[in-house]
Structure formats: structure tokens, C-alpha cells
Amino acid sequence: DIQMTQSPSSLSASVGDRVSITCRANQNIRFFLNWYQQKPGRAPKLLIYHASSLQSGVPSRFSGSGSGTDFTLTISGLQPEDFATYYCQQSFNTPFTFGPGTKVDIK
Amino acid sequence: EVHLVESGGGLVKPGGSLTLSCAASGLSVTNAWMTWVRQAPGKGPEWVGRIKSKPDGGTSDYAAPVKGRFSISRDDSINTLFLHMNSLKSDDTGVYYCSTEESAAGKNWGQGTLVTVSS
To answer: In B, residues 36-55, which contact A (CB 8 Å cutoff)?
Structure first.
């Protein structure tokens, strides 16, 4: 199975900050990388697919980049509703493994 | 608008069986790639398995921890997806979500149903 890692595991930030989260795969997954946001008690919500494609309805302050093994999710101008846990997921091969998550909380 | 509603969760003893349902509206489960994802308490999501659409062959794939114990099926007449779970273990405890798979990503999700495996 493909292993995914994320860094940092948590971060504290303020409203308006620019935040970046890194995800790394242990093998080349080309551009098959998704990003999800999850709030407590809720299902994950798809933000980005194919590494950099913004899911319909997701604010443009969210962006994704990268290919191969290294990927980044950037939130430009953190909003109060963005405090949540973020997960990456590879969809190059089944099982579609998730990263361990990055919790973004209020500084 | 796509709407997915999971049901069937509950308390089951180790070694027992349970079938989860995912009722869909706004799409045809026959023509959709559908996925089950679970999340243990306090942990991240874990991909469980998926079934391809019937036009794409209808085959299914499973994660190693559930292979041979879990199976995915659908009933086109009631537009519902199922997850049949056998030989349940305490490690299978968690919230189970169904989702649609589009562009190799989980696009639409249900609200989840809780499965607790405990004696």
C-alpha cells in the first residue's frame, strides 16, 4: 500500500494568515492526490482533486500544488470557518490511503 | 443534488455480522462508482472499499484489513448501496461513510453510521 505522511500534524494560526500543509507519498503518485477538510462530527469534504483542481463550490482561497511525491495545500487568508482538520489522500492505487491529518486551530 | 443516507449501524459482538445501507438520491448507484470509508474514534479516515459502476464492470476492491470479511453490493431497484460485514473485530469500530467516487476522489458523502464492535 502507498503510505502518506503530512506535516505539520497541527498548527495554530490567525484569521487572515496564509497557511500551507505538506503531504508526501512514499512513491510516485503522479497527480492523483486529493485534499479534504473535516470538522468534528462531520463527514470529510472534498476541497481539491487531481492535486490542483478546485472542487466546485470550494472558495478560491484554497489551492493545491505538486506532483509525483510532494504536494501542498495552501489556504490564502484563513477564515474562521477554516479551522478544521485537513487530510490528503492518494488515489493512484487502491487502497486509496489517507494521510494522518493536520489540525488547524486558532492561535 | 446528490444525497446519501447511511443506516444499519449499531452494537455488535466480536465475530458477529452487520449490513450497512447507503440510500442514494440524485444519482443512480448503478451508474456510479461508490466507496465506503470508515473512521475509528479519534483517528483519520480509512478507505474500506469501492465498487465500480455497472457500465464499467461493477467489480469491487477492498482494503487488506477487511478483504474476505466485507463485501459491497447494490440493489438497483431501491437505489441503495450495501456493505456486508462479517467476522467483525473490535478494530472495525467506527463511523462508516459511503461516498461517490468521481475523478478518483470522494465527492459526495453521507452523514455516516456508527458501528461498535464490543462484547
So the answer is: 37, 44-47, 50
Beta bridge partners of A11: A104
pLDDT tens digit sequence for A8-32: 999 999 999 999 999 999 999 999 9
Whether B60 and B119 have beta carbons less than 8 Å apart is answered as no
At B32-66, the pLDDT tens digits run 999 999 999 999 999 999 999 999 999 999 999 99
SS3 category, A20:
strand
d(CA B114, CA B118): 13
Q: Do B105 and A50 touch (CB under 8 A)?
A: yes
**CA A86 to the chain's CA centroid:** 5
